[in-house]
C-alpha cells in the first residue's frame, strides 16, 4: 500500500468527515489472477496505521454488505441481465486470436482499433461461458471533474468494453459502478489514469438510468434516484526529481514499512495530505482535525506532486516533539537498544526526555541513547572525518581532553546548569572554539555521531561515567 493509494483514500476520508458522511472500504477483488494472500489484512492495517477509520467495510459490516466484490457476483449478474434485456449488452463470441486479427486489420488500415467496429451481428445468447460486453452508444460528453475541471470528449473514444469475464467475475469497469449505485456513493476519487475511461463509464451510467444532469453536489438525492457522483481524478505522485511517476525503483515503500521504520501515523497523514494540496497558507504540518476542517478538492493541484522524503523526515520530527513524554514512551517500546532492557523505567524516561528534541524517527532512538546504557565502542572516524578535528595532532587532542576532564572534575553540583558554566570556563581556559572542544567531549563520552544537548547528556550520564570516559586511553 504505497503513498499514492493511501493519498486517494485519505482525500476521500477527509471529504466524508468534513460532510459528516460515511467513508466506505470496499474490496474490489474480481481479478483473481492478481490476488495476493494477506493483502486485505495488510490494506486494513495500512489505513488504520495512519489514522484512517472507515464507517462501513468487510470486517465491520454495514447497511450495504457484503463489501467484497467476489461475494456480490449474483448482483452483477442481475445488473448484467437487465442490460441484456435492454439490448445494451451482448455475448462476445470471438476468440482472442480473432480479436487480434481485428486489431491487426485496424493497424494495417492506419485506424484506431475499436471493438464496436467488429460487433457481431447476431451474437449468441449469453450463458456465462464467454465474456459479456457492453453495447456502447458513442456520443460526445462534457463533465466536470472536481480536480481537473471541465473535460470534453468525442464519440471516437467510446467502445464496447467487457462487463463480465469468461470466469464469471465482473471487470472493475462494471462492478464498481453497480456497487456505487447500490451503496449510494456520492463522491469517487481515483488516480488521473482513469480520466480516459470516463467516457465509457458515462455511457454505462446513462444506460443504467442515472440522472446525467445532476450530481449530489447540485441536487438533492431522493430514494431510488441515481444521481451522477462527483468525480475527482488525482494527479500522480512523482519521484523526488519530479520527472516521472513515483515507483519502487525510486525508493517508494509500503506505508507500513515507514511505520515500522519509526514514522508516526499522524505525521504520515499530514505529509501525504499535503502532497498536491495546500490550504493557501504557509502551514506545513496539520493535525487530523485541521485537515478535516481545511481540506478542499478545489485546492488540489492538477499537476503531479513531488515525493520529498527529506520533508517527510522533517514533518515526522515535528510530530515527535509535540508528543507528551507518556505518549512517546509508549510508542518507542520496540525501538530501545537491547542494552536498555535492564534499565529502570524512570531512567529510560529521563533518557527519552533528553533525546526527544533530536529524534527524527523513533528508529533513531538506539543511536541517540545506547551510550546511556552501556560503554560505547570507539569510532575514530568521528574524529578523522570531522573537518576541524582531523587537523589536530593526537597530542593536541590528548591535551584538550585532559583539560576537559580536569575542569569537569571540579564541578561539585553535577547538573546541566553547573556543567554549562564549567564548559564556558573551559572555552576561555583553552582558547578553543566550541565546535572543537565540545565535539571532543561529546565524542569521548558517547562515541556517537550526534547526541542531545551536551550539558544535559553529561548530567544524565553522571559524573563518574563522564570522567571515566574522558580518562579512557584512545
Topology diagram in text:
Layout: H1 3-18, H2 39-49, H3 73-85, E1 89-91, H4 96-108, E2 132-134, E3 141-145, E4 149-153, E5 162-164, H5 172-182, E6 187-191, H6 198-207, E7 230-234, E8 237-238, H7 255-260, H8 265-273, H9 288-294, E9 305-306, H10 309-322, H11 325-331, H12 345-355, H13 365-369, H14 381-384, H15 394-409, H16 416-430, H17 434-446, H18 454-461, H19 463-471
Parallel strand pairs: 6-7, 8-9
Antiparallel strand pairs: 1-2, 2-5, 3-4
Any key phrases for this structure?
three-stranded antiparallel beta sheet; 474 residues; 7% strand; two-stranded antiparallel ribbon; 19 helices; 4 domains; Glutamyl-tRNA Synthetase, domain 2; 42% helix; mainly alpha; Rossmann fold
Tell me what you see in this structure:
The protein folds into 4 domains: 72-234, HUPs (Rossmann fold, 3-Layer(aba) Sandwich); 238-326, Glutamyl-trna Synthetase, Domain 2 (Glutamyl-tRNA Synthetase, domain 2), CATH 1.10.1160.10; 330-372, no CATH class; 381-471, Arc Repressor Mutant, subunit A (Orthogonal Bundle). By secondary structure, it is mainly alpha-helical. It has 19 helices and 9 strands. β3 (141-145) and β4 form a beta hairpin. α8 packs across α10 (309-322), α16 packs across α18 and α17 packs across α19. The protein has helices at residues 3-18, 39-49, 73-85, 96-108, 172-182, 198-207, 255-260, 265-273, 288-294, 309-322, 325-331, 345-355, 365-369, 381-384, 394-409, 416-430, 434-446, 454-461, 463-471; strands at residues 89-91, 132-134, 141-145, 149-153, 162-164, 187-191, 230-234, 237-238, 305-306. The two termini are 48 Å apart. It has a 3-stranded antiparallel beta sheet. The chain has a two-stranded antiparallel ribbon with strand order 3-4.
Amino acid at each position: 500500500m504505497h503513498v499514492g493509494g493511501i493519498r486517494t483514500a485519505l482525500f476521500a476520508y477527509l471529504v466524508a468527515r468534513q460532510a459528516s458522511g460515511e467513508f466506505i472500504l470496499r474490496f474490489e477483488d474480481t481479478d483473481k489472477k492478481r490476488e495476493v494472500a494477506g493483502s486485505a489484512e495488510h490494506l486494513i492495517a495500512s489505513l488504520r496505521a495512519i489514522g484512517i477509520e472507515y464507517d462501513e467495510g468487510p470486517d465491520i459490516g454495514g447497511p450495504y454488505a457484503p463489501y467484497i466484490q467476489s461475494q456480490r457476483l449474483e448482483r452483477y449478474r442481475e445488473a448484467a441481465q437487465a442490460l441484456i434485456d435492454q439490448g445494451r449488452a451482448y455475448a462476445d463470441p470471438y476468440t482472442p486470436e480473432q480479436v487480434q486479427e481485428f486489431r491487426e486489420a485496424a493497424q494495417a488500415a492506419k485506424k484506431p482499433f475499436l471493438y464496436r467496429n467488429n460487433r457481431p451481428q447476431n451474437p449468441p445468447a449469453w450463458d456465462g461461458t464467454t465474456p459479456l460486453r457492453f453495447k456502447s452508444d458513442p456520443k460526445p460528453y462534457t463533465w466536470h471533474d472536481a480536480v481537473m475541471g471541465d473535460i470534453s470528449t468525442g464519440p471516437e473514444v467510446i467502445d464496447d468494453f467487457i462487463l463480465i469475464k469468461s470466469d464469471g467475475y465482473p471487470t472493475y469497469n462494471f462492478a464498481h459502478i453497480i456497487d456505487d449505485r447500490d451503496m449510494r456513493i456520492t463522491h469517487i476519487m481515483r488516480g488521473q489514469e482513469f480520466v480516459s475511461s470516463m467516457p465509457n463509464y458515462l455511457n454505462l451510467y446513462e444506460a443504467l438510468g442515472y440522472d446525467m444532469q445532476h450530481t449530489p453536489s447540485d441536487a438533492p438525492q431522493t430514494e431510488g434516484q441515481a444521481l451522477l457522483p462527483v468525480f475527482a481524478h488525482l494527479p500522480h505522485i512523482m519521484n523526488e526529481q519530479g520527472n516521472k511517476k513515483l515507483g519502487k525503483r525510486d525508493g517508494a515503500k509500503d506505508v507500513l514499512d515507514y511505520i515500522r521504520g519509526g514514522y508516526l501515523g499522524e505525521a504520515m497523514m499530514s505529509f501525504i495530505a499535503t502532497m498536491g494540496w495546500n490550504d493557501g497558507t504557509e502551514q506545513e504540518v496539520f493535525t487530523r482535525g485541521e485537515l478535516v476542517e481545511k481540506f478542499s478538492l478545489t485546492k488540489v493541484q492538477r499537476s503531479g506532486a513531488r515525493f520529498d522524503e527529506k520533508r517527510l523526515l522533517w514533518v515526522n520530527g515535528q510530530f515527535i516533539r509535540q508528543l507528551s513524554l507518556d505518549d512517546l514512551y509508549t510508542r518507542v517500546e520496540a525501538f530501545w537498544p537491547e542494552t536498555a532492557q535492564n534499565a529502570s523505567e524512570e531512567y529510560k524516561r529521563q533518557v527519552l526526555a533528553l533525546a526527544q528534541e533530536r529524534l527524527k524517527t523513533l528508529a533513531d532512538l538506539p543511536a541517540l541513547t545506547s551510550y546511556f546504557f552501556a560503554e560505547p565502542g570507539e569510532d575514530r572516524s568521528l574524529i578523522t572525518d570531522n573537518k576541524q578535528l582531523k587537523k589536530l595532532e593526537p597530542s593536541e587532542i590528548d591535551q584538550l581532553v585532559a583539560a576537559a576532564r580536569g575542569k569537569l572534575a571540579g564541578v561539585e553540583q553535577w547538573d546541566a546548569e553547573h556543567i554549562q558554566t564549567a564548559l564556558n570556563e573551559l572555552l576561555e581556559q583553552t582558547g578553543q572554539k566550541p565546535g572543537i572542544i565540545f565535539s571532543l567531549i561529546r565524542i569521548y563520552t558517547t562515541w556517537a555521531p550526534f547526541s542531545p544537548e551536551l550539558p544535559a547528556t553529561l548530567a544524565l550520564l553522571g559524573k563518574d561515567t563522564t570522567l571515566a570516559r574522558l580518562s579512557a586511553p584512545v
